[in-house]
Amino acid sequence: MDFELNEEQLMLREVSRSMLRTTCTPQLVRSTMEAGLDTDDKLWQRVTELGWTSLAVPEDAGGAGQGLVELCLVAEEIGRAVAPGPFLESALAAAAAASGGAPAHLVEALAEGTQRATVAETAELIHAAGSCDLVLVLDEDPRFVPVVEARRRTTIDQTRGWYSAELAPPTADGATRLDIDAAWWRHAMTLLTAADALGVGEQLLEMTVSYTAVREQFGRSIGSFQAVKHKAAEMLIVLKGARAAIYRAAMALDAHASDGALWTSVAKATASDGVADVAGNALQLHGGIGFTWEHDLHLYLRRAKVAQATWGSSSSHYETVAALLRVNDDS
Fold first, then answer.
1. Whether 98 contacts 60, CB under 8 Å
2. 174-231, pLDDT tens digit by residue?
3. Tally of CA atoms within 13 A in the half-sphere of 140 that contains its CB
4. Is residue 161 within 8 Å of 86, Cβ to Cβ?
5. Residues paired with 312 in a beta bridge
6. Gyration radius (Cα) of the chain, Å
């Protein structure tokens, strides 16, 4: 399996990273967080201009016709910037609407970003529901429903708004039923969560290496000490493993391969625990400054910990992996 990115994918990653670096600064993240907002309107406009929300919509429905690999590339950059907003959820919702036979006007609105959507794992914890028009419910009867009674929840992740909300039944007014395989789309959202966490971990490693290169003890940078070098190398190894699992899963899901569910659980479990460990090591190597409110490290650490718990805990995914492997062995 070829894990090398093609020229188009490399360009998507670089353009996304460049836009977020200039538009989604730590100051913007903090101001959005302090204002209690789910995202910044100017950032949302830039995202739609880049075509993120229509990235996975088929070409015949007005989208770019890309797949989960491309969405994962964007998700990495969103995590790297701890960007606030339901960008991934809206992109996935637009693709689901186009694939599931939703009305053309709804597909167009979601693809263009004039309507925002999020995706529900559970009614008790929905990302950015307070600023979205619709929720994509991925239960046994997948559907879009209007956001009703969104109540902001308190979590340690302050870069994103989390809510509980009412999820109307398929027969309710305003509900739009979809003809899709809900399990596949749940796997897709799980994988995008893992990719976001991977981006968080990559930025934590970059911040840590930069800090240890300038922080001095005993007349030399602490990054020159062997113990610190080994810790940074361990962080890199963890992230390389998570990256391989995530893109292996994305390719399997894009191909609708039989092992797509297996690799999704491998990716989520690997990224969940791995990035949480990376965050802990980053905090340790930053020392006392890493514990301060003024330093940005805590924004990443908090996001990593919530990503670890959403769309399936690592333990639940390990259990899924074990069950699927047993089934494969029996067959």
1. no
2. 999 999 999 999 999 999 999 999 999 999 999 999 988 878 688 788 777 888 899 9
3. 0
4. no
5. none
6. 20
Q: Residue 284 — φ and ψ, nearest 5°?
A: -65, -45
Strand partners of residue 162: 127, 153
Q: Which CATH superfamily is domain 7-177 in?
A: Acyl-CoA dehydrogenase/oxidase, N-terminal domain (1.10.540.10)
Distance in angstroms (rounded) separating the CA atoms of residues 197 and 189: 12
Do 118 and 127 form a contact (C-beta atoms < 8 A)? yes
How far apart CA 106 and CA 108 sit, in angstroms, is 5
| Residue 15: CB atoms within 10 Å | 14
Q: Quote the CATH superfamily of domain 185-330.
A: Butyryl-CoA Dehydrogenase, subunit A, domain 3 (1.20.140.10)
What is the three-class DSSP state of 157? coil
Q: What is the pLDDT of residue 214?
A: 77
d(CA 242, CA 290): 24
> Which sign does the torsion angle of CA 202, 204, 205, 206 carry?
positive
Which residues in the chain show pLDDT less than 50?
A: none
**Which pLDDT value is given to residue 331?**
61
**Hey, is 8 helix, strand or coil?**
helix
**174: three-class secondary structure by DSSP:** coil
